[in-house]
Structure to design on (593 residues):
């Protein structure tokens, strides 16, 4: 995510925005020593366990584990994605987020199209109330059970019949080309434009910040298509946007799940009946971009489909998209409705409590997956079990490594009466023997070196200015030690940017391999007193330098002596002297008062 906005802008924004000031605007903070505390806004608690560090520019709750930078807090508290959280914070300090060009996903930005769409949304709402045929749209909405309050919350309006109502009304403010670029007008082959939406109930589609970026229109008469969406524009991409997501975020303080339904009216009526977490795709099947966006916000996504054959086929297509997106702690479930019902009709008939019980009873992805495959393979025979394995293998291979993937393999092993290790090997191309792996004799040394890397990184996160004391560290990159590349990269970054805070460092690793590990280190309370951080950091760095020298000596000694050159012998002597000097330096520094 961070690469879509220039990193130097994110660095400057994080440095300029004070996390204490921002969080205090949402949660009442009080001073407690070097930090600020409050009752956590992310879970119920009676005594404060939520802390904010002005030094680190980092928050952490000891109760529920929530933690992060100021950008992370705005994302979590306001239910925004990364880009919109950056825009929100930039707006606070009067900065304009620079746009990036190129082949990557565009950073959504303001501009004339947003102004055009906002004006159009106001126009459609007024037409619902004032236009003579607006009453037909009102009657349609009342017939579906929509109240005036719900219509107002979702900004529902009406596009009058006729070819140029909107273009005439907006013509005094915006050029026709701007309206066409926003998806509101269609260009005629022979020249000129006409209104895209005519005689339709209009549903504005909002982004995470509540700005209108497109429309969906439901026809009132017999025109086709029944539903018409805005075309793809600079602002609107139907493969990414979800109708009702903005309303879901704002209607629920703690958004724990999302229910994916098929229609606008399903979302509207569910919200009206108190089911405030429904969203709809915009005339397209669920895409990987939809899933990425939803799982960034909630740990559970429930897909709702008709219970007929077509609904189950649609459910399987959603499952295929969900498999690669799943990570440990994320869950996808499937809810199939009674024949002839949709969420709109069902919630009106059963009301919220019964409907939500159906949501609770939605089947898990694993159950739906294996139930579907078992319908295509008779596991009472060897041939059928072999067919089950062959059907499941390509799907399981798409799962990310982790606990969920292993449990799915274990379930397949039960059904096929095979060994789980063998099955796992069939997916990876290797067979796990189950025999314990022989540990090398220097395994204890390896663990010690890894511990030193962890200590050095932890101290750097606590006090980034320590990096200025690091000397001759670049050669450590040649050590075959987990995490050493991260440490060297962090030292390079901080030596070039001595003003960086903990939060800025964490933002540099957002969505990268070590992001979660760094966040854990940043939130952990070190037992090392603040005044001893310098000595402890240098001690870890010196010991790593010693480890590097010892690795070089070991590599030399591992070569046949009769193949040594005079240069090799001189190098060994130099390394042995450096090893001796490093040990003496470590002793001197550790005993220094």
């Amino acid at each position: 995510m961070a690469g879509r906005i220039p990193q130097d802008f994110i660095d400057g924004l994080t440095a300029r925005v004070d996390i204490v000031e921002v969080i205090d605007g949402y949660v009442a903070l009080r001073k407690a020593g070097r930090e600020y505390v409050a009752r956590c806004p992310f879970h119920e608690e009676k005594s404060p366990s939520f802390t904010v560090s002005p030094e680190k520019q980092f928050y952490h709750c000891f109760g529920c584990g929530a933690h992060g930078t100021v950008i992370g807090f705005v994302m979590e508290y306001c239910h925004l994605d990364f880009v919109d959280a950056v825009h929100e914070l930039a707006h606070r300090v009067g900065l304009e987020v620079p746009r990036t060009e190129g082949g990557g996903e565009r950073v959504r930005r303001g501009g004339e199209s947003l102004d055009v769409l906002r004006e159009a949304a106001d126009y459609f709402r007024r037409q619902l109330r004032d236009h003579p045929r607006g009453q037909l749209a009102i009657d349609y909405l009342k017939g579906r059970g929509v109240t005036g309050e719900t219509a107002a919350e979702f900004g529902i309006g009406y596009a009058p019949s006729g070819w140029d109502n909107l273009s005439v009304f907006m013509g005094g403010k915006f050029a026709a080309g701007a309206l066409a670029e926003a998806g509101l007008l269609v260009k005629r082959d022979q020249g000129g434009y006409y209104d895209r939406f005519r005689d339709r109930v209009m549903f504005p589609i909002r982004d995470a910040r509540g700005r209108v970026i497109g429309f969906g229109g439901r026809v009132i008469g017999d025109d086709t298509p029944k539903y018409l969406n805005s075309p793809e524009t600079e602002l609107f991409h139907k493969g990414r946007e979800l109708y009702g997501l903005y309303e879901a975020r704002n209607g629920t303080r703690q958004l724990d799940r999302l229910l994916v339904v098929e229609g606008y009216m399903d979302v509207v009526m569910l919200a009206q009946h108190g089911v405030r977490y429904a969203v709809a795709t915009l005339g397209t099947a669920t895409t990987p971009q939809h899933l990425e966006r939803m799982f960034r916000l909630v740990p559970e996504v429930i897909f709702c489909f008709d219970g007929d054959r077509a609904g189950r086929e649609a459910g399987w297509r959603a499952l295929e998209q969900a498999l690669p997106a799943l990570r440990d702690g994320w869950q996808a479930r499937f809810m199939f409705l009674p024949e002839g019902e949709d969420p709109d009709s069902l919630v009106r008939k059963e009301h919220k409590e019964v409907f939500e019980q159906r949501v609770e009873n939605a089947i898990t992805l694993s159950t739906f997956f294996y139930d579907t495959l078992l319908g295509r393979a008779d596991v009472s025979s060897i041939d059928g079990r072999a067919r089950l394995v062959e059907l499941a293998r390509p799907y399981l291979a798409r799962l990310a490594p982790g606990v969920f993937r292993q449990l799915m393999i274990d379930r397949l092993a039960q059904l096929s009466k095979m060994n789980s290790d063998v099955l796992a090997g069939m997916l990876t191309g290797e067979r796990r023997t189950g025999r314990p792996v022989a540990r090398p004799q220097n395994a204890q040394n390896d663990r010690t070196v890894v511990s030193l890397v962890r200590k050095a990184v932890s101290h750097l996160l606590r006090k980034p200015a320590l990096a200025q004391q690091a000397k001759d560290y670049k050669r450590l990159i040649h050590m075959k030690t987990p995490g050493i590349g991260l440490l060297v990269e962090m030292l390079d970054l901080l030596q070039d940017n001595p003003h960086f805070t903990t939060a800025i460092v964490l933002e540099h690793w957002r969505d990268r391999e070590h992001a979660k590990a760094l966040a854990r280190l940043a939130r952990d309370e070190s037992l090392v007193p603040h005044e001893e951080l310098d000595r402890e950091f240098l001690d870890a760095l010196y010991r790593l330098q010693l480890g590097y020298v010892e690795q070089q000596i070991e590599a030399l000694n591992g070569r046949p002596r009769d193949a040594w050159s005079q240069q090799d012998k001189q190098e060994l002597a130099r390394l042995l002297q450096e090893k001796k000097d490093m040990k003496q330096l470590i002793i001197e520094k550790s005993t220094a008062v």
Q: What stands out?
A: Confidence is low (pLDDT under 50) at residues 102-110, 430-444. The first strand starts at residue 30 and ends at 32. Residues 458 and 521 are 6 Å apart (CA to CA). The domain at 112-229 is CATH 3.90.980.10 (DNA primase DNAg catalytic core, N-terminal domain).
